[in-house]
Amino acid sequence: MTARAILVGCAGLPEGDGDEAGAQRALAEVGVGTRWAVWDDPAEDFTDADLVILRATWDYSARRDAFLDWCASVPSLRNDVDVVRWNTDKTYLLDLENAGIPIVPTRLVAPGAEPEWPETEFVVKPSVGAGSRGAARFAAEERERARAHLRSLHAGGRSVLVQPYQRAVDAEGETALVFFGGGYSHAFTKGAMLTGAAVDESGLFVTEKLGVTRPESAYRALAEDVLDAVGGWFGAGRSGLLYARIDLVRTEDGTPAVLEVELAEPSLGFGQAGPGAAARFASAVRRDLRR
After folding, report:
1. Which of 41, 121, 173, 193 is the most exposed place for a label (fewest CB within 10 A)?
2. pTM of the shown model
3. What percent of the chain has pLDDT over 70?
4. Does the N-terminal peptide bond of residue 98 adopt cis geometry, omega within 30 degrees of 0?
């Protein structure tokens, strides 16, 4: 009997951005049928599936409470609602720091507050956001412009993160390491995109320059440390995460640090990986279906 999985998008991207096409073929080859649905479509029955997989729900940041309520109502959601709730607010970075995981230095600025601004180039971003929307990069002397951006984000009631910009990103980008069912699959790079990069026509994400990479062992080790920490917090171990993307950057001292952990609805870079990545994803889905 063919298993049924729903891939979940949003009204602006009802069938994602096209990256999952190979994964759908790989799933079909192992007996898992798939279809797309929009998360907030009242006509959809998400109980009519063996697995519901968040893929391109990139409008959630404007309605996070409603999105989380929907997640809580969906049986067999992956990743599950507790993980999604934790991961859709970037204050999770402070949890990682408290657990001894190296992160890009991060200051959390509550609405109405103002940070001690970095003395170097820096980034200001909302704590709840997707697709790099609302993130902006400033030179050290651009504090007035940064202050205006901070206030515009605070006006929406959002806390804000301020982080020193890691200059190595200009040369080598971010390194995104992708895991399926807790096992490493592949990695890709994302170029610097906070200097006027265009927004996709859907309006849901900043367009990115992506590339193929083979990460250094220190990057693999750090990403796995993150997965072990998160898996421990949620009680299922790293194998309890159907998918994960860990975005790392090289810091000023040459070591990697966590920029973001993507466990809710990340692009998984199938287009930057060989065909084996789609097969690995399909295998992870089949394992999950037997849980």
Report:
1. 41
2. 0.92
3. 93
4. no
- Average pLDDT over the chain reads 92
pLDDT bracket for residue 204 (50, 70, 90): low
Q: What is the pLDDT of residue 262?
A: 97
Query: Where do the domains of the chain lie, and which CATH numbers do they carry?
Result: 3-79 (3.40.50.880), 92-101+167-269 (3.30.470.20), 107-164 (3.30.1490)
Band of the pLDDT at 157, cuts 50, 70, 90?
confident
Mean pLDDT of 39-52: 96
